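Good morning,

Attaching, inline, the backbone tokens for the sequence recovery test we're adding to the shared suite. The designed sequence is right after.
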């Protein structure tokens, strides 16, 4: 049955046979086979709310499914809550960026806490996010919102004037990002006024930020009851290309100040349950600058790396932490100690260095290295390399596991330059 066939006044009682107990369902918002498998392994009944294109697959595999277009708001959007409530859903878990505010809206209704929706909007709008962080005393770079190209030109000039640049000096870049896109989608670094001409009307409004030096890293924080249950730190070797878990000793020793920064973020953003994925820059003097934070499954295969390094499913962890009714005992049994990693798990996301691919080459020395585990690289049938969007569209991933962070870093740096596709 399609959502628009449901009557708005449908009630929980009308949708169930008399005397039948309605299950406590977890609503997975988005489509992710690992998340579906995680719910099944946890023996938690679930319903998937995903793009309508997945309906046939869901029916074939007996997955309870509701088709929904996440990029479209309409007067009938309340029907989604009504249908999920009728099925017995009590908690919504966002899997992707576009699903965060939908999960927030649903959870605010399930729990009768209107502020949950407002908090989800805070995690979606980068401008609002930066202002909230700044008001809470969290260090951020200089930022403004732009409505047109003239705003960008003025911001580039003001930033470089403040850095005391003179004629002939190379400009420090500014970063322009969409206000509500995931990760690096639409991200541009601009250091020359002529670069601004490449922006189109569809790029606005956008967020402008000053450039931050220092080492960038992310955290994957599993939160329940407003408290950190497990803090993973992911070291970026090259943003959009390579990362590994846990971090090298030099970054790991900063865990106490990183934990303190995360606790400040959780308090400032009033985060109660779920997973957050903040990114920070650590400066040479050890201070932290906040980049941004998401509230969904991170990119870069980080959940896979967490499972390889620590031995637990991050998808299961997200589901457990998203549910306010999960007990402390369940969480204690589930999470290992943060210093109890089995080794370093890393991955390299491979991007072709050519515009047209004729063949795939895998060096023998890579496959024979003790850290190499597997790869899923492929040669596209059409041969032409797709236009890159942000840091997406990689043509396969190489996964590594070993006991030495320095060797892990070396491998990721060396093979990032290798021509796998010719």
């Amino acid at each position: 049955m399609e959502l628009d066939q449901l009557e708005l006044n449908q009630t929980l009682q009308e949708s169930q046979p008399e005397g039948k107990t309605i299950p406590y369902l977890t609503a997975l918002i988005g489509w992710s086979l690992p998340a579906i498998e995680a719910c099944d392994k946890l023996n938690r009944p679930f319903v998937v709310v995903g793009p309508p294109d997945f309906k046939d697959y869901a029916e074939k595999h007996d997955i309870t499914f509701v088709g929904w277009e996440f990029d479209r708001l309409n007067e009938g959007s309340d029907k989604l809550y009504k249908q999920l409530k009728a099925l017995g859903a009590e908690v919504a878990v966002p899997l992707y960026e576009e699903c965060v505010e939908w999960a927030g809206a649903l959870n605010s209704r399930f729990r009768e806490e209107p502020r949950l929706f407002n908090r989800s909007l805070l995690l979606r709008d980068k401008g609002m996010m930066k202002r909230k962080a700044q008001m809470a005393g969290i260090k951020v770079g200089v930022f403004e919102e732009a409505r047109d190209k003239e705003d960008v030109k003025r911001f580039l000039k003001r930033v470089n004037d403040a850095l005391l640049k003179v004629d002939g000096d190379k400009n420090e870049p500014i970063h322009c990002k969409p206000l509500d896109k995931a990760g690096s989608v639409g991200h541009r670094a601009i250091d020359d006024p002529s670069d601004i001409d490449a922006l189109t009307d569809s790029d606005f409004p956008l967020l402008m930020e000053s450039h931050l030096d220092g080492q960038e890293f992310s955290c994957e924080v599993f939160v329940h009851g407003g408290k950190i249950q497990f803090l993973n730190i992911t070291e970026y070797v090259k943003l959009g290309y390579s990362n590994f878990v846990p971090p090298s000793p030099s970054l790991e020793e900063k865990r106490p100040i990183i934990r303190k920064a995360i606790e400040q973020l959780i308090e400032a953003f009033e985060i109660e349950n779920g997973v957050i994925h903040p990114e920070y820059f650590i400066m040479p003097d050890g201070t932290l600058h906040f980049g941004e934070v998401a509230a969904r499954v991170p990119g870069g295969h980080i959940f896979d790396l967490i499972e390889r390094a620590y031995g637990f499913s991050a998808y299961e962890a997200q589901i457990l932490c998203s549910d306010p009714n999960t007990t402390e005992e369940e969480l204690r049994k589930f999470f290992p100690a943060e210093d109890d990693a089995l080794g370093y798990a890393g991955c390299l996301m491979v991007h072709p260095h050519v515009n047209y691919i004729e063949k795939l080459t895998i060096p023998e020395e890579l496959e024979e290295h003790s850290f190499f585990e597997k790869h899923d690289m492929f040669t596209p049938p059409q041969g032409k390399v797709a236009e890159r969007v942000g840091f997406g569209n990689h043509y396969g991933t190489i996964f590594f596991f070993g006991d030495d962070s320095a060797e892990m870093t070396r491998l990721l740096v060396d093979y990032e330059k290798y021509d796998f596709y010719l």
